[in-house]
Design brief:
24% of the residues lie in helices and 23% in strands. The chain has 378 residues and is α+β, with helices and mostly antiparallel strands.
Length: 378
């Protein structure tokens, strides 16, 4: 992999990740852009002990542009985009409308007892362009292309983890208008948070409680339990296991774990990296077949869960990917209504065992795995 770093016209960083070493990356951003001047704030919710980002400048972000004005396509035929080059493999650049930006600042605690706490929304938000092909999706990538994306995610995790004040790095992809995506070009995002996210904090709390109660590692024990049960397994390889969790929140939800626990993407060995593209691409292609032929592409969120940067117990955390769709059946979405949004109690319309069976049923022809066989034997 060749990595080339440059700057856009407004001072934002752009990084090329190329499969070949002989590709020149000297294109200059020709747009007359003013230097970026964005700022955000994070405010503490004392009832939930969570931080909320306030970023009003995002109201003006690009919203569903036509394909010939896509800012994530290469710059060609006199049209200039966010990527100055006429072609690329994988590109990462600083978001023009970031939710988090800049270095850490002082905490201000207003109100009685300092309950109204706030500070600058330090951190960084980046965009990851998976391919120059506007009409493709991640599932259309070759294994080599998907491996390059994995290498880019890993490199960005290493880089962003070193930024002052960053506590956690989150790589993810939103796909589909139903998810709220405003740019249809195949891309993902990376957030570098100045705090440990609430979902990760809850996992760490459960991890510690399980260790106190049993002496074991919660992530290891969950993975072992799902593999032993077998009914919810979707795919298993030599280095990865994909399963629908016993208490899945979403109609179709798959968790993908490396068989050897590591805290983050940097911990994956070469064998796991080599196998990942084949397993992940197969999962994404199955997601597009869940609801049958002739259906539109399945909207989904794909989220990497990595250990916080400086926790002393980070080695006990397990890197894993959670992939789920908000579509519950053909033409119908799973809305987060009163119970889910008001009380955070999910109600799932699809039994996890049925979801796993469906995901095994729609395997790519010729693609078999230990996970499929285990699930079919139940």
């Amino acid at each position: 992999m060749k990595k080339t770093t440059t700057l856009l016209a407004d001072g934002r960083e752009l990084v090329h990740y190329d499969a070949r070493d002989d590709v020149p990356r000297d294109a200059v951003d020709q747009r007359p852009l003013e230097p970026t001047a964005t700022a955000s704030e994070i405010r503490h919710d004392p009832l939930l002990d969570e931080w909320v980002a306030v970023a009003s400048h995002r109201q003006t972000r690009t919203y569903h542009p036509p394909a010939d004005a896509c800012p994530l396509c290469p710059s060609r035929d006199g049209r200039h985009s966010e990527i100055p080059a006429a072609d690329y493999d994988v590109v990462v650049f600083e978001n023009r409308f970031p939710s988090l930006t800049g270095g850490p600042g002082p905490l201000t605690a207003d109100g009685p007892g300092g309950l109204l706490a706030h500070r600058p929304g330090a951190g960084r938000c980046e965009v990851v362009c998976f391919t120059p092909d506007h009409d493709a999706s991640f599932a259309d990538l070759t294994p080599d292309q998907a491996r390059l994306v994995l290498d880019a995610w890993t490199d960005r995790t290493a880089e962003l983890s070193q930024l002052p004040g960053v506590q956690q790095v989150f790589c993810f992809e939103n796909r589909g208008r139903e998810i709220g995506v405003t740019l249809s070009h195949p891309h993902g995002q990376i957030y570098a948070y100045p705090f440990t996210t609430p979902r990760t904090a809850r996992m760490l709390h459960s991890l510690a409680a399980h260790r106190e109660r049993t002496g074991g590692n919660l992530f290891d024990d969950v993975l072992a339990a799902e593999r032993a049960d077998g009914r919810r397994l979707v795919l298993t390889g030599d280095h990865w296991t994909a399963f629908v969790p016993h208490a899945a929140h979403w109609p179709y939800e798959v968790h993908l774990y490396p068989n050897r626990r590591v805290p983050d993407l940097l911990g994956l060995d070469e064998a796991a990296r080599a196998e990942f593209p084949h397993v992940y691409l197969e999962l994404l292609r199955r997601f597009d077949r869940i609801f049958g032929a002739g259906e539109p592409p399945t909207p989904y969120i794909s989220a990497w869960h990595q250990a916080p940067v400086d926790r002393i117990d980070r080695r006990d955390f397990a890197l894993h990917l959670e992939l789920f769709t908000v579509r519950r059946t053909s033409g119908k979405l799973k809305f987060l209504a009163g119970s889910e949004s008001g009380m955070n109690v999910f109600i799932n319309d699809v039994p996890p065992e049925a979801a796993a069976a469906r995901l095994r049923e729609i395997a790519t022809r010729g693609h078999h795995s230990q996970g499929e066989k285990a699930g079919q034997q139940q």
